[in-house]
User: Fold these one by one.
Assistant:
Number 1:
Amino acid sequence: MEFLPLILLSGLQVGCVYAMMALSYFVIINATGILNFAQGEWMMLSAVFGAALITAQLPYPLAVLCAIGGATLVSLLAERLVIRPLQGRNADINTLVVALLGILVVVRYSTGLIFGREEVRLDGPLPAEPMILGDSLFILPQTLFVFGATATVFAGLWLFLHRTTFGRSFRIAAIDPLGAQIVGVDLGRVRFAAFAIGGLIAAILAWLYGPLYAAGYLMGEAPGVKGFIALIIGGLVSPLGALTGGLLLGLFEVATAYYIGSLYSEGIAFVMLMLFLFVRPQGLIASRWRLG
Amino acid sequence: MSTPPTASALLDRPAWPAKRLAIWGAIALVLALLPAAITNGYYLTLATNVAITMILTLSLNFTIGRIGLFSLAHSAFLGIGAYLTAILAQRHGVSPWLTLPVAIAGSCTAAAIIGVPVLRLRGMFLSVATLAFGLFAEVFARQASDVTGGAYGITGIPPLVLFGIPLRGTGMYLVALTVLLLTALILENIRLSRFGRAIAASRDNEPAAAAAGIDIARTRLAGFILSAGFAATAGWVYAFFHLTLNPYVLSLDITFVWLFIVLVGGLGSMRGTAAATVLLGIGPELLGFASTQQVLISGILVLVVVLLAPRGIGGLIEDMEHRIKGTTHG
């Protein structure tokens, strides 16, 4: 049991990454009904772009801002150039899935082509030395940064959705798109803003996840899939679902890796997804979304 | 078209007209004689790879275009088939031919197990759930080194032997071609069969299909399992063609390329899928692009097709046929 605090800490840390990813899916799916497969790639772009800017001797805060801004901009470009024309001609959901996967592949491989295929280190905003808290207990400043940033982003989004008029129009668009239009909600604007916020969250996530791992053109794949699984586990109805699902998945993964073996920790996400689809397809936080 | 079709004509499966048989026979003959024209080993390898890819794209086209299941787990089914084949033949000395039924049974079982919960999902949710299975399979192959050989994979797979002759080069091309033609023939027959029409009905109008007595969930599951069987057969050919196997075969990006081929070809169109497989399988290689850039090229191409020509190559072929025959569709 002596490692329990460490398992909890690192489980929550991984969980925060999944929760943020799930949240970026949630914003877009809730406002537009689109599950944007390419979310993981905005995170990857932000990390790879940022690492290149830091290497180019740009001051750290400026590099972070440019990277986040650049990745968000690409997310908006994808919405404008691909998603909007497709929704404009009422393309079916399959066409959208393929278009999103097309965006994912094009972004991933052109990044690999432009920035190289090597994984590079990405510096976190806080010093790298661990802080010793007890005999076998230490914590990385980056871990604290992950917790703090996740809490801030979730709180910020909650305030936006519940306390601002524009945020409320997001929720109306999710409940009843037609009714929303009747009361004057511009669905095009909502979709644009949803891609902006979703892209922004993923771009911020790069600076939580990147320093723990590395920056490379393939880094978006695993968190991208796990973030979706977290959202299914938690439920698609509110940001709380994303948070619950993410933290639960992270804790389970780390606990499985420690108690059973790291080989099985990768499988646990898929097993949990199957279990939830079987037993509670609406997710932990009950959802009004029908999945089947 | 003066007499209306009788009820029995609607219920019976349409016969194969002699013209269609002749076309299929001619295609098979030309492809079988191809190695005689190709003397360069590189082009033969390319042709074999295209044949293997086409087994996968045709069965993926069946899953997506005919059943309407946007599954992204095809690489996992290919991988299960290929790894079962390699492990049995290389480590346990099982006869290469006997590994085929095991590979198919393994993939079909996996498809049945994940199919039950996953096929309850719709649209994008089904895609991501199958994607999660594909990712799981890839990570498993990378990490379970005791079983799969880890990142290095399995080498030294013994070749297929027919009448005492080990099959390599031209021999494996003919094996791949045989499997490909059988796959195409079976899929084309299914399209015309009762099962195939039940599948199409479930895709196009669920309430009507259910009212006509079709068990939609079971029909879809059967189709899903069937397509996993084709993917496993492709994996079996793959293992004996390359004689080595590593987790790259399970890469999700490769699944995306197959998906893009199906879309560029035009959903549901077998001819279009076949044409797009040849185009994307050979084109970038001949133009001198590296294989990683092939993924990028297929991604760009699919975006162009989705935005500008939503019905793909198959749609273009149909339009041309209609123009030649002087009729309009729709």
Number 2:
Amino acid sequence: MTLAAADAYIYVGWAATGVAVVVYGISLVQRGKRAAAQVPEGKRRWSDPS
Amino acid sequence: MTTTGSKGTRILGGVTLVLLAVVTVYGLWLTPADVEMGDNVRLLYIHPPIATAMFIPVVLTAVGSLLWLVKKSVWWDLVALAGAEIGAVLVGLCLVTGSLWGRATWGTYWDWDPLLTSTALLFLMLLGYLALRRVPAEPEVRNRRSAVVGLAIAVNVPIVHFAVDWWRSLHQTATVSTLDPKIDGIQLLTFALGFLAVLLATAWAMIHRFRLAWLEDQLEATFLETAVAERRLEAGVSP
């Protein structure tokens, strides 16, 4: 295996991780914003209901 | 409050992003190539931290499932849900980075060895858990089904964790979890920073996913209350 081929696996691994972290992080924040906008004001506080 | 963020999560997120950037610069450019593994060692600054951190949300899924069964607390059911989704993301990333590392060092993306197979099974179980939660059912029924599957997932955790010790495997045994780590200097520092960055990212994601699950649960409850009130009105029953 050439060094360049080995490098490709390294960069693909890092890129896949970086993209996954950023995309999933942004999606979490956006889903949170959408959900918060639909929930009535008094029910938005998370706490243990038990 | 119109988001799942708070002052604490914004600070945590900021610190995590800075740390991830530092690890990237160190991991890809500032650390030297390894004597034995060459540049392939750079994948190890992300793969083992992910492979370790993935157990946290998975264990939280099992704990949340158990405590839902014991206490019937929605809070713990939502912890289990958050853990399963974050766990699926991390286990998926572990499989992707691991297979790339395997291709670069062993010459193959995949081998049906105990560690890889049990990790793939863990990934499928988490996807199954998340799919099961989307099956239409009464909240109580859905939570009970999910809790049982959440506990079943826990059985696989020690198998994945100890597979390299219990069976012969292509995969190497622990590199730094011993008192005499096999790497040192800037490589060890980068490795440690990688662990910290992934742990903080996992914590940030768990908090946000839990809060999102809480809001979704409130939405579902509001929807059910409205639907019941409408049916009662249709039937001429006073609320």
Number 3:
Amino acid sequence: MKPPGRRRARRERELDEELQAHLRIAIAERVAGGESPENAAANARRELGNLARVREETREAWGGVAVERFGQDLRFGLRILRRSPGVSGIAILCLTVGIGANAAVFSWIEGILFRPFPGVAHQERLAALAGTMRGQPGHEGVSWPDFADLRKSCRTIDAFIADRIMGATLSIGERAERAPGSIVSANYFEALGVRPVLGRGFRPEEETGRNAHPVTVISWRTWKERYKGDPAIIGKIQRLNGAPFTIVGVAPEGFDGTFVGYAMRFFVPMSMEEKFEPGGWKLEDRGARFIEPFVRVRAGVTLAQAQAEISAVARRLEAMYPDTNRGHGLRVYPLRLTPFNGAAELGPTLGIALAVVAAVLLIACANVGNLLLVRSFGRRHEMTVRLAIGAGRGRLFAQLLTEGLVLSALGAAGGLVVARLCRGALALFYPARGTAIRLAGEIDWRVVAGAAVVCLVSTLLFGLVPALQAGRVDPAAVLKTEAAGVVGGHRKAWVRSLLVLVQVALCFVLLVGTGLVWRSLERIRRLNPGFSTRGVLVTAVDMLGAGYDADHAKSIETALLDRVRSLPGVESAAFARVMPLSLRPPSSGPVAVPGYVPPPDEQPIVQYVEVSPDYFSTTGIPLLSGREFARADDGDGERVAVVNDTMAAKFWPGRSPVGETLVLKGRPLRVVGVARTSKYQAVSEAPKPFFYVPLAQNFAPTTALFMRTSLGPAEMTAAFGAALRSVDPNLAHFEVTTMRRQVEDSARGEQVAVAVLEIFGGLALLLAAIGLYGVLSYAVSQRMHEMGLRMALGATGRDLLRLVASQGMALTGAGIAAGLAAALLLTRLIQNLLFGVSPRDPAVFGSSAAVLVAAALAACALPAWRAVRLDPWKALRE
Amino acid sequence: MAEKTPASRLDLLQGTLDLLVLQTLRWGPRHGYGIAQMIRSGSRDVLQVDTGSLYPALHRLERQGAISADWETSENNQRVRVYRLTAAGRKQLAAERSRWDQLAEAIAGVMRKPSESES
């Protein structure tokens, strides 16, 4: 068989020969019938019709023509592209921005929500498991005894995987650093399908026995960075929180554990829990819900089926262990809705980002559509001639779309490069300190496929307008009037104005959305959290990480507090087990109050935190009655508590709780004070019951330190560091920062949302301004003649300026009006992301309009200036 | 016929043209011009086959295998492409013919009906 190209060429030649023969026979017959040779030739020719069209239609009968045509169009498209590099360049740039923004968001969604754990097999069958309270989903984990019962009794689940994130001091030689790690069940690596590159994962017996198995698997990064890829690493000792652990394995490259947001540096088996978790040995405590597990659902089983089975087990556990499990249920979440890691925080933001980049893409497509319309005007002659010599309208249509496809394919390629560069961009917006942040986008075949779909859709969007316009050309009319100037331009101007109007409207919606989220972030920042944000510095000291036991840590804390209090400029200082508004949750436990009868289905569980003396005066939480903790409230004194006013109103309605008894986990506490309710875990949370107990009576070694001082963090860092060293040279502290920053950082989700919206909103504004500029400058160039005439008849530069600007402003005004209607409908959708701001906030709507008008004026400036500088004689002569 | 718009030309001959071509080739091999002339004279000049429809139809039928084509030299020394019916083409002709007959009869029946009911 000959190659298709040569076979095709031969067929073309044969078809020509066949048609020529046809013509000759027809002429011969006509001559034989008595016609003159000239007449015969002309008549036969006319009878044969349009030779090119006959050829074209016959070729179609051969089949396979679509491919060949596509190749022709493609080559032609590339030629057109090179012929007007300016237009093509801007079009490709717009598309790169539009498609790139989409591809970047796709890759974030893929890498953070859908397949967040590189190196883990079959993530589509992985689901998160979290506790519920009385059917209400919360951030509760699962206790180890419940976990063990679950994995014994579920058939729809292939594997239960226990995981608990923690931070530990990783010391190698002289250098120590804080690093995130995971406490995991023994099946962790095997169940995730992660094979250590060196050594092994954990053995089944290694998850049992209190502190019995000091072994660790280190991450690839730890191995490479801290051990320089030592090939004989297995069996060596790694000190974690001061204790020696034997390295039994090295995780493969790219595997960063299973917590969205952090890259784990090491893994230890569950039996070593006590070394890392505050609150002691929890593996036998059914009430200690500290595990954040994953389940691998059996192939072919739906999440609903797994949920049904797990719920049944949870109900059984509730009946068997009412003391710890009453009201507690379990819920299975697809990975993208995981409630306990960065997915929960970023999910809504990424959803909005998706809608926003779709709008950016539409705006970009409108720009490209506009550009191509202008160019198609310049190519009207070409189109007309092609139609006149027999090109079908469908063929012309296909060719214009192919030209569009060339543009958007180049844009998509650029877009993927942009997405690749932006993979790590989210991590930049994510305020976190001192930890290994991991929030990378993932570009796999799904993202590329998504980008390809976006590319095709945008081709249709921007390619259709000029193609439809070309389809409407009437060859005869155009050829006849070609010389007469701008004919048929009016309709195109109308289409182009409509495109700009849509752009402005979309842009307005985006600006309003950005403004609303920005304002609610401002609200959160300004909100009174219930404690002082000024004049208070915070830091933390990791006693557990130094490997100290409770008694030693307690004595160090007392000494350290004394040292810090005596530092110049420090008014007071206090410890608490956890920082308010931090990721680490406060303690919680079942409480009982004599005289308070809970509703039958309620097991009252209240959160509390362990604090040192002077906590309230240092943090600025007002005490409403009673006293705060003193030195005397230590291990020898009466056990005491301070409750907040929300708790007082619930458990002691109408009376003062001071002097009353509160029973926590079966042990009585004397209430000595009432504090005003503040914010504990999130600034946007509703007031909730909460209480405080003295650190000295409920010792927990992980401690946040608060200092009331007028000094700044920079000045304090040195002084505090020296104080800490003088107490114990082995202790390290976290960054010294302000309470204000602690509050601001707690609004991480909102900060990322604002950053993303600001960037995309800015892009949209820029693209819309370019679109408006393009339309206006084209309009001016088309109206040069008219404007010259106006000038000659006495119009001043100012009149022309007004003429151009009013056209621009009319477009912008109409766009804003349309956008206003859309925004009023759409902003309700982001209501749950807003805090203290109405989705119809007039200030935001007003300033968005103002920004757009300003951008529109800027876009008008250059065309208007050109109109003003017009030389009427020159314009008229053209 | 030059005034005919492309649309009406296609409507008129789509499908039927294939039948006419096959039927013409039943009387022996012929080149394109010959086929067109024969259809024209056979229909007493009522059916004038447009070249722009004829050649696509011939090449389509050739691709389908209903007819085959060879280069031959005509009586006045022209190199011409001559088409002839294949076995498959004969079968197709028979099938299309009986379909055509049914259709013609059905249409004739419909046209007759009113006068019958009147009587």
Number 4:
Amino acid sequence: MADQVLDAKGLNCPLPILRAKKTLAGMPAGNTLEIVATDPGSIKDFEAFCRTTGHELVEQENDGKIFRFVIKKTG
Amino acid sequence: MSADGTKSMSIIVTKGTLDWAYPPFILSTTAAALGLNVTMFFTFYGLPLLLKQLDLQMSPLGNPAMKMPMAGMHMGMPNIMSMIPFVDAGATKMMENMMKKKGVASIAELRELAVESDVRMIACQMTMDLFEYSLDDMIGGIELGGAATYIEVATQSEINLFI
């Protein structure tokens, strides 16, 4: 169970990333954020986001319509 | 690149129609979200993007690549249609409705996110004077600058874009 959940359903690029960034900024390091999105582009976007920011993409899954990501904030 | 290895990006923003407002703001906010230092330099028709009161329009005139999804197909509009009053306003409204329907951020929202993300926004002094805009017309937190200011930023940026 993630420490916090961000509902990004119905939002298109770049909003899921921008909202995630904002939410992560307010979280302590080590906490996890679960993001739920409907934007198919979010898969690649969140992978790139974690690669460049250093946050850890702990989990990701999708059923083709709903995309779930769990990101752990690194300090 | 800054001393701690942070990468930088600069964007020269020269266009101010509703459609062309998107690339600079999407790129700048996303780059900032990915940890880059971003500077946007607004000049010529990019200046209205800094106005407190945004009034962005769009026109299908001379835009053969603009084909809107309508009635199950992609349809363009012949140039001659732009002679008809309110066709541009109609195209603008159509675009705005499409954006809202598909959850695309508004320019106002993207701009606010850019300001919150500490994207450096510079308004070109020369074109401000040329088009007689005053700093009071613009949102807060922007700087005035000239070409040399921009070039200096660009020499220190890994990515420099002209939009």
